[in-house]
Amino acid sequence: MLFGPANYELSAVGLPRRCTTTMCHNAKRQVYSAGAPAWQSDYTPRNIMKFQSRYLFVILILATVAACEPAGDKKDAAGLAKQQMSWADFRESFIEEYFEHNPAAAIGAGRHEYDGQLHDYSPAAVAAEIGWLKERRVQAAAYGDDALAGREKFERSYLMATADKQLFFLEQSGFLHSNVVVYAFAIDPSIYLSLEYAPLPQRMAAFTRHAAAIPAYLAQMRSNLVTPLAKPYIEVSRSILEGYATFFADAVPQIFSAVDDASLQTGFSAANASAIEALKEMTAWLDSELETASDDFALGEEKFLRMLRMNEGVEISIAVLKAAGEADLERNLAALVEACDVFAPGLSIHECAAKNDRIKMAGGPVEGARRQLADLKQFLIEKDLVSIPGTEQALVDEAPPYNRWNFAYIRIPGPYEDGLPSTYYIAPPDPAWSEEDRLAYIPGAKKLLYVSVHEVWPGHFLNFLHANRSESVFGRTFFTYSYTEGWAHYTEEMMFDAGLDGQAPDSHIGQLSNALLRNVRFLSAIGLHTEGMTVDESRQMFIDKGVQDSGNASQQAFRGTFDPGYLNYTLGKLMIRKLRDDWTASRGGRAAWKEFHDTFLSYGAPPIPLVRADMLAGDESADAALLPY
């Protein structure tokens, strides 16, 4: 992702993502017309984070009282929360206050009273948010088991994990002082441009407020950053900001040109011009920092493991983590060799994958994906692999010109939106490219098949059909990177194993091509952030082991410097597969897959270890290992 990092995949709720988002990205599209990088999503949903809450004001009184108390009275504040509020009231007030601190999360949910607001990262605001998160975490812990019923105990852990995730970003990661990329992503205005949640004049007014906030936001960014900055961060973020300056100047005025309101147009023009100037100034400043830039982007082992613990709920050692990643990589490489021996005997695995990718969908990828979705849904029904709640369908469309920096992504409206469709977008190649480059950019039919699996059936779209119906409001509100992207990636192999496409060798190659990319991301994240791996060494691993071309390998290696969480595709997949095997072992094995999938999806998208503990509670035959290797 995943709202926020469509997309990009920083795991903090409300940060700029998208699953996740994951990328069938070609290096030639590192920066597109809109300026955001190709790595912003890897088939990650643009806005799949789900939210649900109601206005509750009693907590505001409690917060005021608690804020005035000395630190030693925190336990008393926690007790007051327990005495005065039901868990449901406390939980939902947490969500409401979270939106106040994180307007991007609220906007993505469909709470458009927050439109145009950017996150306040001033030192005072950050300190206030950190204090609020810690206080609410203490108060949540004060609700004992005897005061909670059913899923409320799970929700308590879910809420505390949500606080931990945001605390890691704000207080532990150091990103606010070093990772300029996370600031750059947050400027993305696409929700006002591509989601028709309101008439165009209303969205124009929202964009105008957004643009008007950009100069102060960028000034705050510059004030927070500590130089020298890491060179990869500068190179990526300056491309994003420069691209946005061009996009705001050339494309956005055309989008709003049909609005016949002189006052709106005047306000828009002034705010847009101010934003463009600020973006250009910040790009120039970043360029000036290149001369003194460092290669110091690594989190280090201790912080990397803390990221996994606080963001994903995963307690593990680097040795165990790396061994599992290497084992899965070797398993997939061996499977690719076997499939290629049948599909393209005598060719190397790189030549074999390239041959497979030259076979395109008739009628182009958009029309081809529409046909694929119908077939995929029918396959799920015939094989009875998972329940499909409701009758919603995902539309397929060509990505609009102002939002083509990802090859494929899905936009799923938040729970406060009413009657808006989910749309699976596919970006066409740039018509200015050569014919050879355009053909190379379009994925082969079999690779596209597993992109469609990942994005829609039974990946992100089905995940959030279930999440929207979760009994827990938290399941409809907060997501975990390894859950959302892990599920979508897990489904690719699961569908092949269930017999998709007749388990043909060319289909297996398409599935494995995506799996190997994620395998190398997993190992690259570990190497770059804990073992001193260089960007060039990462790039070479993507070529050799990930079966990527040179350009895409460079892009993937760069992404790993600012997105250490991109290991979560494979990490989540492995945790889900291990949980499935453990849970179904006493329930009929393969025959229990549907029950497993339905049960797993009922939780929403919390940290997978929480789900594992809940699903295996009382199962003495299950071991404690999170991973299958």
Name the average pLDDT: 88
Number of helices: 27
Please indicate the percent range of residues in DSSP E strands (runs of 2 or more): under 5%
Unreliable spans are 1-74
- Count of folded domains: 2
The order of strands across the largest sheet is 1-3-2
Q: Level of helix content?
A: 55-70%
- Terminal CA distance: 27 Å
> What is the total tally of β strands?
3
Chart the SSEs and their pairings.
Layout (H helix, E strand, L loop, with lengths): L57 H11 L5 H11 L2 H15 L1 H7 L13 H19 L10 H21 L2 H4 L1 H6 L4 H5 L5 H25 L6 H20 L1 H4 L6 H28 L11 H12 L5 H26 L5 H9 L7 H19 L10 E5 L9 E4 L10 E5 L8 H7 L3 H11 L4 H8 L13 H17 L7 H26 L4 H10 L5 H13 L5 H17 L8 H9 L6 H8 L14
Parallel strand pairs: 1-3
Antiparallel strand pairs: 2-3
Helix pairs in contact: 1-2, 2-5, 3-4, 3-5, 3-6, 5-6, 6-14, 10-13, 11-13, 15-16, 15-22, 16-22, 17-19, 19-21, 19-22, 21-22, 21-25, 22-23, 22-24, 22-25, 23-24, 25-27
Could you list some keywords that capture this structure?
2 domains, mainly alpha, globular, 629 residues, disordered N terminus, 3-stranded mixed beta sheet
Commentary on this structure:
This protein has 629 residues and is an all-alpha fold. The chain has 2 domains: 1-52 and 301-629, no CATH class; 181-292, no CATH class. The chain has helices at 58-68, 74-84, 87-101, 103-109, 123-141, 152-172, 175-178, 180-185, 190-194, 200-224, 231-250, 252-255, 262-289, 301-312, 318-343, 349-357, 365-383, 435-441, 445-455, 460-467, 481-497, 505-530, 535-544, 550-562, 568-584, 593-601, 608-615; strands at residues 394-398, 408-411, 422-426. Strands 1-3-2 form a 3-stranded mixed beta sheet, with helices on one face. Helix 3 crosses helix 4 and helix 3 runs antiparallel to helix 5 (123-141). The longest helix has 28 residues, at 262-289. It is globular.
